[in-house]
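Q&A log
Question type: sequence-to-structure
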Amino acid sequence: GKPLEDVFMAGVECSSKAMYPDWLSLSGDGYVASIYKKYGKIISPMGCRAFLSPWFERGGMEPADE
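Response status: OK
Response body:
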């Protein structure tokens, strides 16, 4: 199998019993993946696939330390 295929299959099994509506890709090119790659943090959606705008402790919408 592929790397982490066992984890994926465990997720499929879990979803068949209690479905969380989103599978978040941490290795893709989207917003969630970019935050994870940069900060090592996973951003979960609020409600049904709605994400809050980014907010940084120092700087607000744009990080002050970059």
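Response note: The helical segments are 5-15, 31-39.
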